[in-house]
């Protein structure tokens, strides 16, 4: 009996020792992270990025190849807000994608290290929840991962282009290698302090995809019904009318004039994610921010969620040109589509029978549609610390 007791005692001591070692290996000491991000990052108690609540009616996900982890998104958050990622230490990703504006910009064009951006900065809220996997207004990036480092390598934006006298992206990696908190963060996330573009891309993409908004009046109503077509009990009569107009396709006569049905916004902006249909083409906005020539390659759009704050004020001006400054003006644009010379890429849904659509919305219909779009506004996206600046 004594022999068994001794064996069991020794086995218990061994087990406890192994567990203790495992804990120390999982959460080692990272003094520079602790010192730099005293009030924002605790490596032993990370923010919840990987297991946030997603409503069961949300099914689209373009991030399955790079699943969000708490560690990866934490590194992505630091990278997103760090001005060291620009050549003159003045611009971060967050300079053009501001939490206060649903991660968009409240100016028409954003300021970079060598000028301004060529298009209005797109809001990043709910970027994950879309079938569209390409990014930028013209879809020139095949994935969010690829997109994340393209502004860094742009001469005008963040300045590590390797052209026009700029330093190269390899110079950025050398720069980051000489910042102690990055040595610790990359080790913490990847088990090695080696910094590569792929690791930067994956971490930034995880953080951006973690930015989600599902606490709107729309979501509260959608949880009470079986599908979007049912009246939402928490909606006013006007908001339910706007929802029906948004979801229901229009009926046109031979001239492109609406004679019945709704206004069909959901043909491109699909509920309940309100993401852009990947097959959408140009929406009739063909201007450029510098008023030189036309731009018909813009076929992508961000989610319509958080176009506005809950009080109805716009988070950013709208469209790739940033020239539409109210929901009323945006609705007016789609109410009457004029066929512009040179726009060979206009979406067929906007030109029924070869004619520019004439929705002929009444004032009451326009107001109802606007009221519905306001129901897509959340609140936590503007205040949740997990998406805030870790350097503050």
Automatic annotation (TrEMBL):
One of its GO terms (molecular function) is peroxidase activity. It is found in: Cell envelope. Gene3D superfamilies: Cytochrome c-like domain. Residues 71-180 form the Cytochrome c domain. PROSITE patterns: CYTC, PROKAR_LIPOPROTEIN. The keyword Mitochondrion does not apply. Transmembrane segments: none annotated. Keywords: Heme, Iron, Metal-binding, Oxidoreductase, Peroxidase, Signal. Residues 1-20 form the signal peptide. This is Cytochrome-c peroxidase. It comes from Flavobacterium jejuense.
């Amino acid at each position: 009996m004594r022999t068994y007791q001794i064996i069991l005692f020794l086995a218990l001591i061994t087990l406890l020792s192994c567990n203790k070692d495992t804990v120390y290996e999982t959460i080692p000491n990272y003094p520079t992270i602790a010192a730099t991000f005293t009030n924002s990052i605790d490596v032993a108690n990370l923010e919840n990025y990987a297991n946030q609540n997603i409503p069961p009616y949300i099914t689209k996900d373009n991030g399955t190849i790079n699943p969000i982890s708490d560690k990866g998104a934490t590194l992505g958050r630091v990278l997103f807000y760090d001005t060291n990622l620009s050549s003159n230490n003045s611009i971060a990703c967050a300079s053009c994608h501001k939490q206060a504006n649903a991660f968009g910009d409240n100016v028409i064009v954003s300021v970079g290290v060598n000028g301004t951006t060529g298009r209005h900065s797109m809001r990043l809220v709910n970027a994950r929840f879309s079938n569209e996997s390409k990014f930028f207004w013209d879809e020139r990036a095949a994935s969010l991962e690829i997109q994340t480092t393209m502004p860094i390598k742009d001469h005008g934006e963040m300045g590590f282009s390797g052209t026009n006298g700029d330093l190269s992206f390899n110079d950025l990696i050398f720069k980051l290698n000489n910042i102690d908190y990055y040595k610790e963060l990359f080790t913490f996330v990847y088990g090695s302090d080696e910094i590569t573009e792929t690791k930067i891309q994956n971490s930034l993409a995880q953080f951006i995809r973690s930015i989600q908004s599902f606490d709107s009046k729309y979501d509260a109503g959608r949880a009470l019904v079986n599908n979007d077509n049912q009246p939402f009990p928490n909606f006013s009569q006007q908001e339910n009318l706007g929802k029906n107009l948004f979801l229901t396709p229009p009926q046109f006569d031979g001239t492109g004039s609406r004679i019945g049905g709704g206004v069909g916004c959901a043909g491109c902006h699909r509920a309940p994610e309100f993401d852009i249909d990947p097959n959408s083409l140009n929406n009739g906005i063909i201007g450029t921010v510098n008023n030189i020539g036309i731009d018909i390659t813009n076929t992508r759009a961000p989610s319509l969620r958080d176009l506005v704050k809950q009080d109805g004020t716009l988070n950013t001006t709208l469209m790739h040109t940033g020239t539409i400054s109210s929901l009323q003006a945006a609705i007016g644009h789609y109410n009457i589509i004029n066929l512009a010379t040179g726009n060979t890429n206009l979406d067929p849904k906007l030109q029924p029978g070869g004619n520019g659509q004439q929705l002929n919305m009444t004032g009451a219909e326009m107001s109802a549609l606007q009221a519905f779009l306001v129901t897509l506004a959340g609140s936590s996206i503007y205040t949740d610390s997990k998406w805030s600046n870790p350097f503050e």
